[in-house]
Amino acid sequence: MRFSVVRGASPKRVVHEQDPALLKPFVEAAQELEAAGCRAITTTCGFLALFQKEMAAAVGVPLFTSSLLQVPIVYRMLRPGQVIGILTAHSDAMNPRVLEAVGADGVPHVVGGSQVAPDFYNVFVQNRDWIDTDQCESQLVALATGMIEAHPQIRAFVCEGTNFSVLGPGHPAGHAAALLRHRHHDALGVRRRRQAARDGGFM
Predict the structure, then answer these.
(1) Shared domain check, 58 and 154
(2) For 71-100, how does the pLDDT look when each residue is reduced to its tens digit (9 = 90+)?
(3) Residue 189 near residue 38, CB atoms below 8 Å
(4) Are residues 16 and 90 located together in one domain of the fold?
(5) CA-based diameter of the chain, in Å?
(6) pTM of this prediction?
């Protein structure tokens, strides 16, 4: 398993600004991982879905920019009238362009943003340097539970970012780690956001 840090990227530029200038350094990072022998590549931020087409075309191995690639797959598993809940870093940032980039435009869904889960949001979006995993989990569970109560037609969740795996195995939801389980674990190229934060970058 190898990691690559994209310096100069940040949650603000990736999530909120969705800065197209980041495409080039992310492509270069993916190519470096491929050159190092990685057999599959992913990122930890689902908003990089905007770069899926270009990044996948730039390497010769499977590349998954976003766990949102699972949205059309999961939707096809549901009964008519059922919808997908999407947990995301910020609900305002989950715009039609992001879903269109992964072929999920037109898929019925409900979005829940982590801005209402402060212990998660302050770490993974605002770059707070300490984390209370118990609070993160309880706040995200409360978010998802509230979504179901308001929209009982939700029958599956897809998590936009890999950091939502803080929910743990007791709360099944699709994130990028699920995509990677389809590949051999000894041949993966992944980017770890925590290492990037230490190195002054973002993944």
Answers:
(1) no
(2) 999 999 999 999 999 999 999 999 999 999
(3) yes
(4) no
(5) 48
(6) 0.82
